[in-house]
Structures are given as structure tokens and as C-alpha cells.
Amino acid sequence: MRRFVTLIFAISTMTLIAQTPIHIIVGSTSFTATLADSETGEAFAALLPLTVTMNELNGNEKYHYLSSSLPTDAYQPGTIHAGDLMLYGNNCVVLFYKTFNSGYSYTRIGALDDPSGLSDALGNGNVSVRFEKGETTDLGEVQRDKVPSTKVLRDGQLFILRGNDKYTLTGNKIK
To answer: What does the pLDDT look like over 46-99, one tens digit per residue?
Structure first.
């Protein structure tokens, strides 16, 4: 019982923060991605909107060298997943469109929420890609706007149910 009360207190006093969703647009196809809650994610968001030519490499990724450096926190992910948006070094943005194993080190910028169709949209060769900010939901505002909401802890993740909308603790609206 004491654990339950402690958990309820912890949930009720949590600071609700919003992560920044972005749109990655390739031709007429748009993908939604969520930036990492990190200095790198924030620094990348500050560059947006941004349209770049991304070059093809190895049949699994597109890359572009930025004119400035971003903060890094490199690690070896082992497995790269289709839809990962990473930083190689301190200024090379890489968008992966296939899943594979890698021994290289990267800093996570973010990831596509659903990478279905990414490979087809990017195609072969170099491609123009636009990155722009999406709508951010500030859950602090969701909680203060007098619309009834319910906090639900399921499988270790906090969900906020508000009317017909459902949000995660980090501010991502779930469809």
C-alpha cells in the first residue's frame, strides 16, 4: 500500500515536459519524427526549418553535412533501425532507411514515429529533404485548461487521457 501511495504522489508531482515533434518531408510524402530529449535534439530543432540535399550511402542511409556543429553524446547502438535520425561526428545528419548492424558511433537526434514507406520515398541516389517543426503539445497546459483528464500508469509508462485525446508523459499525442 505504501508503494502505491508513493507512486501516486510521484505521478501527481511530475513535471510534464513536451518533446518536439518534427516533420520530415520527401517530395510529397511527410513523416513525423520525435526529437530526442537532449542537447542534440534541441540544437537540431533550433536549425529548423531546414531543406537539404541528402546524399546516398551504402544503400541504407542518406546523409548531409551541416555548416555548424551540434552537441554530441556518441554511443555505439549496435543495431541501426529504419527511421533513426542520427548525428555522425558533430555535423553529419544521417537518416537511416534500413535496419542493420553497425559498429559505428552516433549521437541520437531522434527517430521517425512510423518509418513505413521511408525507403520508397527516399529512393536511390541523392534527394532533397525538408525538416520542419511540428506541433508541440505542452502537457502542463493540457492539465491546466480545466478539461477533465485522467492519468493512467500502464506497463511503466504514464498516459494522460483527455477527452478523446491520449498523450504520453513526454507530450506525444497518440493517434
So the answer is: 999 999 999 999 999 999 999 999 999 999 999 999 999 999 999 999 999 999
Question: For residue 120, which phi and psi values (nearest 5 degrees)?
Answer: -65, -40
Residue from 47, 130, 44 nearest 86 by CA:
44
To the question of pTM greater than 0.85 for the whole model, the response is no
Neighbours of 158 (CB within 10 A): 17
Cis peptide before 115 (omega within 30 of 0): no
Cell of 36: 530526442
Read off the amino acid at residue 11: I
**Which has the closest alpha carbon to 40: 104, 103, 109, 110?**
109
Rounded CA gap, 132 and 124, in Å?
Answer: 23
Domain 21-133 adopts which CATH fold?
Cyclophilin (2.40.100)
Instruction: Identify whether the C-beta of residue 164 lies closer than 8 Å to the C-beta of residue 157.
Output: no
